[in-house]
Amino acid sequence: MVVRPYDQELKYIEKINSHSYRIKVGFQPNMKVEGIFYVNNHLEKLMFDELRNACRPGQMGGFLPGVKQIANVAALPGIVGRSVGLPDIHSGYGFAIGNMAAFDINDPTSIVSPGGVGFDINCGVRLLRTNLFEKDVQPVKEQIAQSLFDHIPVGVGSKGIIPMNAKDLEEALEMGMDWSLREGYVWAEDKEHCEEYGRMLNADPSKVSMRAKKRGLPQLGTLGAGNHYAEIQVVDEIYDKFAASKMGIEETGQVCVMIHSGSRGFGHQVATDALVQMEKAMKRDKIETNDRQLACARINSTEGQDYLKAMAAAANFAWVNRSSMTFLSRQAFAKQFKTTPDDLDMHVIYDVSHNVAKVEEHMVNGKQKTLLVHRKGATRAFPPHHPLIPVDYQLTGQPVLVGGTMGTCSYVLTGTEQGMNETFGSTCHGAGRALSRAKSRRNLDYLDVLERMKTLGIAIRVASPKLVMEEAPESYKNVTDVVDTCHAAGISKKCMKLRPIAVIKG
Amino acid sequence: MFRNKLTALEHPTPDAPIDCSNRVQFANTVLWLEDQKIRHYKIEDREPLRAIGTPNWEKNWEAAYEQYKNDVGMMKVNGPVEELSWLLSYAVRLEYLDNVETFKSFTADRVNELNKPSKPTISSSNPFDNLNLVGGNFAACVEKLAKRLNHSTHVDPAITLEASARLIYEKLRPEALNQPKPEGKAFPIKESEQFMFADKNSDEAAKILRLLQIQSVRNVQTSVNENIVAIQEITADPKTDSKLGKVGF
Amino acid sequence: MSLFFAGVRFDKTNNSLRKLKVNLLNSPRMEVDFTEDSVKFPEQKFEYLDHTADVQLHAWGSTLKEAFEQCGMAMFGYMTSLEYVQIKYCYQIEATGDDLESLLFHFLDELLFLFSCEPFLICSSLDITKFDLENFKIECKCYGEPFEIGKHPQGTEVKAITYSAMQIVQKPEGNKCEVFVIIDI
Q1: Where does Mn(2+) 1 bind (chain A) (predicted)?
Q2: Is residue A90 part of an annotated ligand binding site?
Q3: What is the pLDDT of residues B114-133, one digit of tens each?
Q4: Which range of residues forms the domain containing residue B34?
Q5: Of A247, A446, C36, C78, which has the maximum CB count within 10 A?
């Protein structure tokens, strides 16, 4: 890492407009393209504070500041366009969380990096609608929260309740949501409203280690811990009436269910295994990176291909996982309201992936190119008329589900043409951490956090109450700032805002 | 050769040509005619004609055949082809005489008539196929229908009619009429920003085509979903087993 | 917290010698015999340091071996409160590496794996019985019991061990060794 005083560093960062900054080539060594990041006034301060802190002498911190990480990604072989930092960016392992980068598949030096996908492969958000309204749910809020908690296994060490053996797992890894469909856990329409139709076709379970499969098997159909949650939300504001109605949302007060989860221990192990393999590939192919954490391999190398196939299997695992919890949520609601999920119209509005690398077609300098797009803590946001989005959203653009943090609002956005041009069709994924976990624990008391949920009228069921302050809104960037920045910058468009009334957490 | 006569006599393989120079084939055909159709001899008296293919059979058989020709009263003809032809005609005549009443009505005209409708029995279920699409009357009626349904016309009346049919299917058949009207506002396609062309009219046309395409993709997707549901009927058996893990503690 | 393990009681039925049971899983680990006397309860020598998204484990000891043991305990301590863990089983694990860092990485990864699937073991005591720094090989006895919801408070899930800012500090003076590891949670 180049060490320069803070004021020297600032010379490489240039404001483009009110919502974006350019990171010039030279900020870090070997940058092949520029970096860009999107912020508003509040988020801008957080970004620059982080950089200033890192410039202090004697820092022994774990991760580089977000801006440095964006620049290091811009130095990876085969990158095209720009290395993009989204408004919810914060530093992470290798790539910052909220960083997206695209690599030209036809360039033989191009790389794939597990650090550009993240440990929780295909972590994502699914939103179900219901035909219930707040007035129907408010009186039974506590019961329905308990019922969800009674149906969905949550928290560290929890095990899935959907019977699975090793053969089922192999099939699920290969088939993704088609497995859930075949077994009858989900509806045909659910598949239609998922990225990739809930199945990555290049998945190859034989490229996945036994260890990953063993970690995955007991955890299928579990929510997990940390920032994963299931929430009952009500539509608070509608900004785009037409797009909302396409999603089956007619007016404010309508009740939805949001599920945020990923590929559990399975995906974590796939990523860990790949990082070990890639260290070797880097030495062999003499791939130079600015940061050892940016372990990567050429896309067309054995390690690269094996990772992509294993990653696809992990992505399928995550879809089966979210589908299983969709099934459990529908059961919980059906029991509570003594009716069927069908009669409650509990359709999947959409299912987005936050941590994944995908092969996509994009225009680069006026030419169509096939790219491997890494999105880590970033959501795909394709514009209207894009062939890869469901027919129901052809006119509105792809729905983008942005989950808030415990007790804060969530948003639904839609993809835009400008986002397609500027950020390879990518936008923010959530709030993005601002405070470290340890700091949250020191500064906040979990009883205060729980008490505040109560005063906000939010029912809460949590497996590890003593850790809720780690996930308290204070620990995160303000999701409204993040979403407003994306909207103002034009990389996605606000459609509606959702407010939680019940939270189930690990 | 002799296909018509053989067919009339319901020979099992009327289309296979009979090689009259092949004495075995010839003899077998003669025997078949006597056995099945002519029946001039009593069954036991047909034995000499039956001895076909045994060693040195020709001599005995030829003698029996000479006798048979005399017995059925064959006139003097030249060679095996004419002989077989006479025998076949004779057999046909005998068949006819057995059932004069039935066959009397089969005149040439009648047979032609009977042969005709055998083709359209597999008639298309599409009523358009049987329509006479030429003639001013058709065009005028189609135009009238289009006017009634309030949609524009095409120079080709067949295309106009297809449009009418589609409109009736989509909007006016009982299932469609019973469907609740979609709520909410229609997509403001005309006011939306430029889609493809700078020219306003072309752009509007492109938008309309786009909407039609979306509608047809929607239909495909719906039928895909219906197929998945049909398969789920067979494969689906979702289970949960709360013994496997602990929930709601 | 100096009486960290004061609450640990032995399950009477499990006090006797346990049968040796070779684990047939692919991992080089097995359940082994143990007696009460063989379990050590050292004082806690670890802490959790600040990190934006993740947590940094900081463990120390008078030897590197002790620092490694403490680091493993620190990871388990993040997943539950160790004072609720009874010692019912002992599993032996093996870990190998190419250098000191990768040895620590694989050691922790093995421990995480022990927790993540059969036998779902959560450990309250670790005893490294072989600490070979020439071939970078560790053998460790892990004492604890299967994680059980309702009995063990749920902490945070550890997704993975990372090499990020990993530091292994050996100070000859004062016999103090320290390790820093960031775990992804």
Answers
A1: 120, 123, 228
A2: no
A3: 766 555 555 567 766 666 76
A4: 8-115
A5: A247
